[in-house]
Amino acid sequence: MTLDDRVVLITGAKRIGHVVAQELARLGAHVAVSYRASAREADETVAAVRARGRKAMAVRADVGVPAECAALVETVATGLGRLDVLVNMASIYEPVPFDDMTADDWQRNLDINVRSVFLCAKAAVPHMRAAGQGRIINFADWLARSGRPAYPGFVAYYTAKAAVIALTEALALELAADQILVNAIAPGPIVPPAELTSAEREEVAALTPLGRWGGEHEVAKAVHMLIASDFITGETIRVDGGRHVR
After folding, report:
1. Which among 64, 100, 114, 135 is most buried, taking Cβ atoms within 10 Å?
2. Does residue 2 fall inside a structural domain?
3. pLDDT of the chain along its 246 residues, tens only?
């Protein structure tokens, strides 16, 4: 699929999502982004896309709420005229020790990290069928892809991201006859979290075979590759600098 005049919806407008939106706009796409609390970042993303001569919009939505997922997709399809690509990037990554974890902590992780993927896909598929094809790109995690729950405190997160991988494979089978290709990206050390010290950042880089953090553009390249391919579906691709082979 080429991106000229296609419409892409990205759930999540911060950090990596901002760069992915700009890259897809550079390649010809019109881009919509969703946000829950990051209105300023979403507006900056819209401005960056429009600066490249493409149409853009930002829609406030809590993707953990079913009705808001459906409304988000309909608003984008109506506002930009169609929907060709869905990038399910919205996620939460919050450590909670198992002994302190509540049922609400568990449910919040599942709602945002995996149920939203299903709900947004469910709403997007009719628009893709109308167009004769589509792409759905989900976001997992390199640890879940590698079967390595390496860090304590992420029981709900790890479980949700493993479910994203399973959902990606199941949807790929369900939607193949419609020429809707469904894949996932499993990022590794892409952008250091703000709370990491310099020593911790260096430690992560040293544990990565390529010896560095990847940067947002490596994810944007992977997203574009999965959109451009007409024969890859049901895959979860690690973008982790080789962390999984150590």
Report:
1. 135
2. no
3. 999 999 999 998 788 999 999 999 999 999 999 999 889 999 999 999 999 999 999 999 999 899 999 999 999 999 999 999 999 999 999 999 999 999 999 999 999 999 999 999 999 999 999 999 999 999 999 999 999 999 999 999 999 999 999 999 999 999 999 999 999 999 999 999 888 999 999 999 999 999 999 999 999 999 999 999 999 999 999 999 999 998
- In the beta sheet, which residues pair with residue 38? none
Residue 195: which CATH number? 3.40.50.720
Enter the pTM of the model: 0.97
Q: Which of 35, 93, 151, 157 is flagged as catalytic?
A: 157
**Distance of alpha carbon 19 from alpha carbon 48, whole angstroms:** 9
Is residue 1, in this structure, part of any structural domain at all?
A: no
- Structural domain span for residue 117: 7-245
| 158 has catalytic annotation | no
Q: Is residue 77 part of a domain?
A: yes
| Number of domains within the chain | 1
